[in-house]
Design goal:
Blueprint (H helix, E strand, L loop, with lengths): L2 H18 L7 E10 L2 E9 L4 H8 L4 E11 L4 E14 L4 E5 L4 E4 L2 H10 L1 E7 L9 E9 L2 H22 L12 H9 L8 E4 L5 H7 L3
Antiparallel strand pairs: 1-2, 2-7, 3-4, 3-8, 4-5, 5-6, 8-9
Helix pairs in contact: 1-4, 4-5
Length: 220
Amino acid sequence: MSLSGRKLLLKIMALLFVSAFCFAQEVKIKSVKPLLQNNRFMVASVFENLLSKDLTDGLASGMARTLNFRFDLVQKNSQKVYEFYRTVKLRYDVWEGIYFLSNRKQKKQFDQFEELNHFLNDSLNFDLLPFKKLPVENSIQIILYFSPENISETQKRKLEFWMDEENENQTSTPGDNESGFSINLSGLISLFTSKENPKNTATGKSGHFTIKSLKENENP
């Protein structure tokens, strides 16, 4: 096996090691509240265990993770008024020891895991749309669905990228495999990516409200 092949195998085995300890903790949405801010309709959310162990392990290995949020605005007659999708992307710089968070509105960085964890659980607000686009007096409820991107999908993309790199190296340096040791990388990737990973999904609901009531209670 070539030197690049050995490096690839080490990367794969490291990811397998991480994946073996991905035991899910239950994610809970503790509260979902509507906000009006700067003429925008926003949602304030409070979570528990948003960064479950599989997400934490993935981050610790330097793997970028994506958190997916879906917001349904539903009237009392169960008619859906709007549906929004938002993502939060997380990345840990292994060399610098810094956590990075980004979404469509902001980019933040954290020196400590505890700071990132606190922000995600207690301070995550989502900007959805101008409040004037919502019916003023109709009763509305927010239904929030949370799901992280499946870790196996992320890992598969990484492995495919590394596999492409290895193929290019083998093509450019034929006859490099002199050790007599070989491994079916495609088979290993198939075995690895077929492994089921727990999904930490959660659903939360706000109380019913009207834009009119929010306007009346809005801080000047």
